[in-house]
Amino acid sequence: MDYKDYIKWERMPTTWCPGCAIGTIFKQTAFALADLGLPAEELTVVSGIGCSGRAAGYFNVDSVHATHGRAIPVAEGIKRANPRLKVIVFSGDGDLVGIGGNHLLHAGRRDIDLAVICVNNGIYGMTGGQMAPTTPAGEKTLTSPHGSAYAPLNIQGIITSNRRHWFARASTFHVAHLQRVIREAVERPGFAFVEVMAFCIENFGRRLGFKSGHEMLTTLKTGYKLRPGTEGLLGDGELGVVKHDS
Amino acid sequence: MDPPGHRGTEMPKPSKPIDAHIAWTADYCKHCSTCITICPVKNLEFKDDEMTSLGKCTQCLLCMKYCPDFAIEVEAKKK
User: Fold this and answer.
1) What is the total count of domains within chain B?
2) Residues of A in contact with B71 (CB under 8 A)
3) pLDDT tens string A200-232
4) CATH number at residue A139
5) pLDDT digits (tens, 9 = 90+) for A91-122
6) What percent of the residues of chain A are helix, what percent strand, and what percent coil, each to the nearest 5?
7) Facing residues of A166 across strands?
8) In the predicted structure, residue A28 carries a pLDDT above the cut 90
9) Which residues of A touch B32 (CB under 8 A)?
10) How far, in Å, CA of B41 to CA of B27, rounded?
11) Chain A contact for B42, CB < 8 A?
12) pLDDT over threshold 90, residue B19
């Protein structure tokens, strides 16, 4: 199948800002699905609220745009009602980790067969760039003008605290790796979480002095390195996969 | 209502060939310049809001992979 079969072309262009990272992640997800050759009838995309939540409406498959933070429970219900379906959750950090943090804890604990793609831009982008649980310490946002006073939430720690786990960290710059981990996440029987390091240019980058989306993209290039293998936890600035299957 | 089994989509809007390998869709382009800056051979350029190719394309497909808006399509190299 071609990636073009997975996109609702009458909805294009997307509502995302020029140079937004979500577009690239959305495209790489479509590439990964086309690579797997999954028929649209066996696929469901669920997303929560936020800029990345829009993605559910752009995939040419059955999709649900759930309420804020409740993407994982809705996806879990779909999976339990019809286990034949491959269910993908495509949402942002504010939705999955901030508002829906509790659901993430328990979905990980129960090891539900879901592929979760979390667009981590470090803020609540759609509402204007407020501080989120994933905002890096010291980063200036709309609601933390003197820099965030708290350490960001450790998503890797939440997922890998379960005995059986699959966690991947990717970035919007490293597209080949991103596509590969999305493919692996969809294929894995069990809870697979992909944290994609992204950026928000309009509501975060501009406040920090970035001129364009590409400038923020290059910070991902210099800030993250790929780690080969799946042994041990990922350090700061490392991309890769952490898994335990028994 | 769409009949059952109907995929319910149109095809992408017609794109404009700007090179032997590259096609650009003006309706989708948001002029974010990601493709221009990501291109390793500096092949792409805006001329009066129109994308132009300088004919140096090596078909590495980077612009197509990074474009967030499906505005640029590059034909893959034939093996």
Assistant:
1) 1
2) 13
3) 998 998 888 898 888 889 999 999 999 988 888
4) 3.40.50.970
5) 999 999 999 999 999 999 999 999 999 999 99
6) 40, 20, 40
7) A243
8) yes
9) 18-20, 212-214
10) 25
11) no
12) no
